Structures are given as structure tokens and as C-alpha cells.
Amino acid sequence: MKKTNYYALKLAFTYFFFATLWILFSDRVVTALATNLEMHELGQAFKGHFFVVVTSMMLWSLARKNNLALERASDIDSVTGLHSPSVFMRHVDTLLAPRDQQTSYVLVIIDIDGFTSLTNKLGFERTNHLLSDMAHAIEVSTLLDKLTSRVHADRFACLVALDGASDMALYIDRLHRECHRHLQRYEQQATCSIGVALFGPDGYDAATLMTAATRALNEAKKRKNTVTYHDMHLTEQAQKRRQLVSALRVAINNKEIEVVFQPQYRLTSGELSGLEVLARWTHETYGVVPPSTFITLAEEQGFCEDLTALVLEKAANQLRDSDLLGTVIQRVSVNISAVEFNSQSAIRRIDDYLKLNPEFARYLCLEITETAALDDILECARVVDILKRHGVAFSIDDFGVGYTSLGMFNRINVDEIKIDRSFIQSMETDSRAKAITAGIIDITKRLEINVVAEGVETATQLALLKSFGCEYVQGYYLGYPSTLSELKVAMPVRKVNANIDNS
Fold first, then answer.
1. Taking every annotated instance into account, which residue ranges of this chain make up the domain EAL (predicted)?
2. What is 7-54 written as a DSSP string?
């Protein structure tokens, strides 16, 4: 209402100002220029027509500007700042028009469960804040290109462009989690449901995709707090994934994740020099779940801190009870994910753990991936320095597979690097892999940094590493990951096998 009054007053004032000036000065101009009565009458007629033309153009200009402003206002949702449904549908059709495009599109509809009762609890103003926060959650849930609209009071539609490297299930899961987190700021029990339709299998235009996604949403709303795909096969996959995530959360809380230890040997003497701690999960329904699956899930779902804390706790307790730590075992390696290493809360938690366990910290080596170290070298160096105050060592894992920068050794105080297994396993057939491996070993020795070759699986690989002067090795040829009791039984045999002269 205020905007309407403003535009009306502006239009009236502009007209009044121009008309007043015209009345004051136009007659004087005509009188000054006219030399006779006929010219004076002609001037007055021209003056009148010119006034009509000018005021008409002014009115047209002001009306057009006003209409454009009103159109823009109607194109944007006033509560969330998102596109209106009509603009959204028009833009979606434009994006989907080229039939030969390589981009994969997904249309997602997010709906707040029990919105009416939620509105009654929150009131009008807080409900608007909630809707605005939901819009923000959808917009920032990923860096992928997207087009978003509020298509109903509590319903949002989002068209997402997925590139070849994008994981659709991962994106949908992250979106659901982010929306749920924002909802719980207002009401602890609040949830949302999501319906998903895929460009191509479920439709080729905005209307068809919206219909498919709405059908999927209606199915999701029956169960609430659920993601449903129009393709039922994808829905089953999503449900299995959610069940696996739930089971992993329970397993971590109940300390059902077990640890095993893979031995590392000093190549020159064949002596056991250290252990790498590895997490293992066996579920009564899913069986043995590969680490590549459950660790990735832990990273995606924010369970990494709890998982690492559990691994550290179990490894420390078992090693203390075995009497191997500080006698036979001088180094215990534990992997820290890139997600944790770039999280201030995770680093604080590790820092607190090391303060409370100084004896274990003396033998602990934290492994971070090369890509995590290179993501922000200055921040990485700062974190390493903080944790090294407790006596821990640092290792760069999977060295050589990222964009290796030798300059990072001038900034990051690392004690060890682990050559990625892909180089070790290619040495026998690939001269470049052999040369790279030899070069890495030579450089690290000159820098007085320990080097470990991981993934050793044959005697030939072991012989090559010894000829290069590699100091430490690990891999299936030398010993599989096992429990400490199994390791103690096999220790004498492993020492002989680890010595290249007897292999």
C-alpha cells in the first residue's frame, strides 16, 4: 500500500511541477516570438499540442517504469526473496529446451511436515523467519548451479544442474540434512519431506517434472521426514542409504566399530617398527561394510569426529593392554580425514584428547592426505604445530597422487610421507612409476623425512624399494591387517619375511 501511494504521489507531483512551469513561461515565450496576431495564434496552438505530446510521453514513461517495478515485485517472493512460481517455471523450460544438452537436471520439491500446526506454534512473524531460513538453506546447501522458488506456502522447488562428477544421492541427502537442521532451530520436532524427479526419465519440461516430483513428494509425505524419488528403484537405494547411516550412528554410539592393525617394517633389518590403525565394521544385517563405504558416510554425515575418537580410544586401550607400546611398537599411525582436518571443532577435540593422554601421544602419528595438506598450506601448518606440541608425529598419506608441491615441506613440519600404493604397484611394469618412486625416496632422505612405501604386494616390489633406499614398508606381502593377538603370534615369522634377504 505504501509503494502504491508513493508512485501515485510521485506521478502527480511530476505532472504538477511540469504544468506549473509550462503555464508560467510558455505564454511569455510565444508573446516574445510572435510579431503579429496570426503568428501569436499559431504559437498558442503549437504550444498546446506540444504540451499534450510532452505530458503524454511523461505519463507513458512513468507508467512504464511503475509497471516494470510492479512486475519485478511480483517476480520475487517477498518473504524468501526467491523466484515466483511463474518465473521459476518459465526459467526451467528455458534451461531444459535444448534436447542435445549434456547437463543432467534434477527437480526437487521440499515440503515442511505439519506446517499448519507449526505455524500456530510459531506465529506469523517467526514463521516468515523460518521460511526465509529454509530458502537460505536450500540456496547454500551446495555449490552446484540451481534455480529455486517458493511454489506454495511451505513448499519449495529447486532445479539442480549436476555435472558428471556430482553425486545426486549425496546432494539430496545434504539438502535434506541442511533443511532439517534449519527447521530444528525453530521447533525441535519439525521435519521436511522431499520429492525428486529426474530430467529425461521423468519428463522433459517444467510441467511434467513438477508433476512427477509432486507425486514423489506425496509418497514421501505419507511417511514424513523422507526422501522419495519418482523412480522407485532410486527411492529404495535412498532408503537403504538412510538405514545404513542410521546403523552407523548406532554402531559408533555403542562402540561396535572395531580396530585392526597393519604392521610396518624397517626394510633394512626386517624389524616391526610401527602399526597403522584401521577401522572395521561388521553389521548383523549388512555384514562386513567396507571402510570406503562407512568412512565416506561418516564424512558426509558429520560422524568423523566421533569415529576418530572411538578409533583412538580403542587403539590406545588395546596397545596399553598388550604391553607392545613403547617396547616393540614405537609408532602408531591413525588417519585423520580431510573433513576433520579442516574443522576447528574436530581439531579442538583431538587436541583435548592428546592433553588427557600424553603417554599415548608420544607414539602417535597422525596421517593426513596430501590433498588436505595442500588445500590451505598455512592453515595446515598452524594445525600441525598446535598438535605437535603434544609430541605427536605427522605423516602425509597418499603422497604423489595430488598436485604435489615440494614447497609445502618448507612450511609444514611433517615427519613422514607415505608413497601412494599406485606407484608401488606399477613399478614392475612402468618405468615412470619406478623413477617417481625413486625420486620421492631420494628427496625425502635429503630432507631428513621418513618415507613409508605402502601397498607392497610382491617380492620384486620389495627388492626395488630396498635398492632405492626406502626405509619403511607395509603391505599385504608383509602382513594383512589383524588384531593385536594375531599380530603377536605371527610376529617372529613376519620379521623373517619382512627381510628382503630372506624373502
1. 241-495
2. HHHHHHHHHHHHHHHHHHHHHHHHHHH--SHHHHHHHHHHHHHHHHHH
